[in-house]
Amino acid sequence: MIEYCNLSERHEEQILALYKENFKILYGEVYDPEKVKREIQTYQVVVAEQAGRVLGFGVSTDLASGIGYPGVSELTAMRRSLMWAKGTTEKKAKFKTFYEQKAKKQGGKAVTRHYNNKFLRETTEVHPEDFYFSAVAVDKKFQNMGIATEITRRRIEIARQSGATAIFADTRIKSASKHIFQKFRFSLMLLRGPTGDNNEASLLMGKRLRKK
Ligand SMILES: CC(C)(COP(=O)(O)OP(=O)(O)OC[C@H]1O[C@@H](n2cnc3c(N)ncnc32)[C@H](O)[C@@H]1OP(=O)(O)O)[C@@H](O)C(=O)NCCC(=O)NCCS
Is 158 in contact with 60 (CB distance < 8 Å)? Predict the structure, then answer.
């Protein structure tokens, strides 16, 4: 039976090994075990484990604690632009051009049509207690068995219980994790140019949490 639990010391070495296997370049830097160790000890980690073997994990942080994450900084900048652009046609056009040009430089294209949807307007009100989902990985031998889906379900529940009003996540364009976020009704917010280990375009996705 697979158990889902919080990080404890006995998981650390196995999680570091999974990180190393899956993320050779993390946030544009070469994998650094000390940095990753600090990260998993600081943020919230959901671990999937079977008979002492770590099968997968997912890292989450609230936006206030995750201030150093590139994804979180970008989100803050984007939110400011959106708030600034809110309401005026001229400013909206400037916002659109800014992101299109930025993305084009990186070889991608900005998804500005989402600017007009209700979800993104609501996310201009992201709060420090909102959540950001960082890395998720599952041991290759155990992939496609629903483990990351269950980890995601639990991360969403933790965010909801902590009082988050929205969750943001970084993922890649052709990945299983994008597919999983879509299953949980995350919307596409921004498409960036190719980055990371495999030079694949990356995405920022977001989900608004409704109060129960
Ligand atoms: C992403 C990852 C964690 C998914 O773990 P998992 O336990 O295999 O995921 P699940 O079994 O819960 O779900 C996989 C789903 O994605 C689908 N899928 C698998 N590969 C896919 C791909 N390349 N593109 C799109 N969908 C894909 C599966 O069909 C399945 O869909 P379903 O639930 O509708 O049947 C795992 O592939 C992994 O560790 N990848 C390497 C690390 C990584 O890239 N992490 C994400 C970036 S942080």
Answer: yes
User: Of all atoms in ligand 1, which is nearest to the CA of residue 150?
Assistant: 12
Prediction pTM value? 0.83
Q: State in Å: Cα 138 to ligand 1 middle.
A: 8
Q: Which domains, from first to last, does the chain contain?
A: 3-68+124-208 (3.40.630.30)
pLDDT digits (tens, 9 = 90+) for 70-97: 666 666 666 655 555 555 566 556 656 6
Q: Which is higher by pLDDT, 120 or 208?
A: 208
* CA-nearest residue, atom 16 of ligand 1: 176
pLDDT of 130-162, one tens digit each? 899 988 999 999 999 999 999 999 999 999 999
Query: What digits encode the pLDDT tens for the residues 168-199?
Result: 888 888 889 999 999 999 987 776 666 656 66
**What's the CA-to-centroid distance between 51 and ligand 1, angstroms?**
23
Q: Which of 65, 60, 70 lies closest to 7 in space, CA to CA?
A: 60
Q: What are phi and psi of 27, to 5 degrees?
A: 50, 40
Quote the ligand 1 centre to 91 CA distance (angstroms): 38
User: How many angstroms is it from 52 CA to the middle of ligand 1?
Assistant: 23
Q: Give the Cα-Cα-Cα angle 148, 77, 198 (nearest 5 degrees).
A: 45
Atom of ligand 1 nearest to the CA of 174: 24
CA distance 172 to 115: 20
